[in-house]
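tokens incoming
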């Protein structure tokens, strides 16, 4: 209704303007080819407007006729483009659906209709890679490297191909080239970093971590931990050959992570070897209060070279109160008491952990106590039998591998900071033993093999 009213009002306005123009007074003289015309002013204006409209209409028709071939060509190109985009979409869908053969066909069709489109070329290369046609994929990717806009994508594809073919050297080269073109490429940074870790190029690895941009609190914590782990790895390698540098790296790691046990152990060992036992003991005391790690306590007990077993027991008493409040402390104290032949103290340390908290380590120590104090082989064998069935104690574990000492890298996956101090899973431990053929019954194990002491020292030997 509003539209109709607006149309009627507009028509009336236009009609009024036309009537006003026609009614304008005065005349105009026109001499054309010997003819003179003297129309009224309004009529002349109306004729001029009409002539203008006719000229515009004629020009539009002529222009349409002249531009018809170009219009047809544009329409044809638009249709080809639409068909090319549709083929490109079908290629993406086929590739994601696990049909690389159709993806390659549609990618080639898209290239035929969109010859300048780089995405179609990349899709064909991806389809070749998914079909296992490595040579064709390599040729497509190498052709795309020359184009600045597709170079990184092409290098990514070549990297994936090298990984699929188990060619780590070639994969590393592609990652390095990608990093040179796109410094913020996540996968390239990770690939180069993993290579530095695998080849123990710790200086280069920590340099990469140092330039990382950490925005959130979690990212900053992750960056500090990676720096600390790498610094500890450097300290570990230099502990014997370059102890002074190793100590610097260990202390740097402890500044980043004050309670990082591996760094504290390395730093303390270097202090001990340099004859600075007080510094070692101070460092170990701080770490023990923060972590309660048994390796820290054992090293504290042996922080004075040449000390007797009684001296070590006395020193461990500086850290651990009697009776110990947790199982780790109890096992450390019991180990020292056994070495000093203080059987009553050893029993007292373990008596609160013989029921629900019984582990392999506790049961093995009890077997040693029974065997050493009274020589009762029956009770000792009973404890050793319980040790086999008991839950395991925490250990340095990574990817199903148990290590006596912390390692910076997993030997299975090569992952940095993979080792954790935790209880190994029974299933993993048992399956590993079965694969190696080392699972034995209790009757097959002689007493010495059943004992699982925490640690031994040169003085004990």
């Amino acid at each position: 209704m509003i539209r109709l009213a607006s149309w009627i009002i507009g028509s009336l306005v236009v009609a009024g303007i036309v009537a006003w123009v026609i009614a304008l007074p005065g005349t105009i003289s026109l001499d054309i080819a010997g003819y003179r015309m003297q129309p009224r002013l309004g009529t002349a204006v109306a004729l001029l407007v009409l002539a203008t409209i006719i000229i515009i209409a004629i020009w539009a028709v002529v222009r349409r006729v002249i531009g018809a071939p170009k219009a047809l060509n544009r329409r044809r190109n638009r249709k080809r483009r639409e068909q090319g985009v549709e083929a490109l979409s079908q290629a993406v869908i086929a590739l994601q659906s696990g049909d690389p053969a159709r993806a390659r066909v549609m990618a080639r069709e898209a290239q035929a209709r969109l010859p300048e489109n780089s995405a179609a070329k990349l899709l064909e290369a991806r389809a070749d890679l998914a079909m296992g046609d490595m040579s064709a994929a390599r040729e497509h990717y190498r052709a795309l490297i020359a184009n600045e806009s597709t170079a990184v994508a092409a290098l990514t594809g070549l990297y994936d191909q090298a990984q699929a073919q188990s060619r780590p050297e070639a994969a590393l080269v592609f990652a390095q080239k990608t990093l040179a073109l796109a410094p913020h490429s996540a996968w390239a940074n990770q690939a180069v970093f993993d290579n530095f870790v695998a080849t123990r190029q710790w200086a280069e690895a920590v340099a990469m971590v140092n330039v990382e941009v950490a925005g959130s609190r979690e990212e900053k914590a992750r960056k500090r931990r990676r720096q600390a782990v790498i610094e500890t790895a450097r300290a570990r390698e230099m502990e014997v050959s370059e102890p002074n540098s190793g100590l610097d790296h260990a202390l740097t790691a402890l500044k980043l992570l004050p309670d990082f046990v591996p760094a504290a152990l390395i730093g303390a060992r270097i202090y001990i070897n340099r004859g600075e036992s007080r510094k070692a003991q101070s460092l170990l005391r701080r770490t023990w209060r923060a972590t309660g790690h048994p390796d820290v306590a054992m090293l504290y007990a042996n922080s004075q070279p040449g000390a007797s077993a009684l001296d070590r027991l006395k020193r461990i008493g500086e850290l651990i109160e009697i009776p110990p409040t947790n199982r780790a402390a109890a096992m450390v104290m019991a180990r020292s008491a056994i070495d000093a032949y203080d059987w009553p103290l050893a029993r007292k340390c373990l008596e609160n952990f013989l029921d629900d908290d019984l582990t392999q380590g506790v049961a093995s120590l009890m077997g040693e106590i029974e065997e050493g104090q009274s020589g009762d082989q029956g009770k000792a064998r009973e404890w050793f039998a319980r040790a086999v069935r008991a839950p395991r104690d925490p250990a340095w574990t990574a990817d199903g591998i148990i290590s006596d000492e912390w390692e910076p890298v997993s030997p299975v996956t090569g992952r940095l900071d993979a080792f954790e101090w935790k209880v190994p899973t029974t299933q993993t431990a048992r399956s590993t033993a079965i694969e190696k053929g080392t699972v034995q019954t209790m009757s097959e194990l002689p007493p010495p093999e059943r004992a699982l002491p925490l640690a031994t020292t040169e003085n004990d030997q």
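note: Confidence is low (pLDDT under 50) at residues 426-461.
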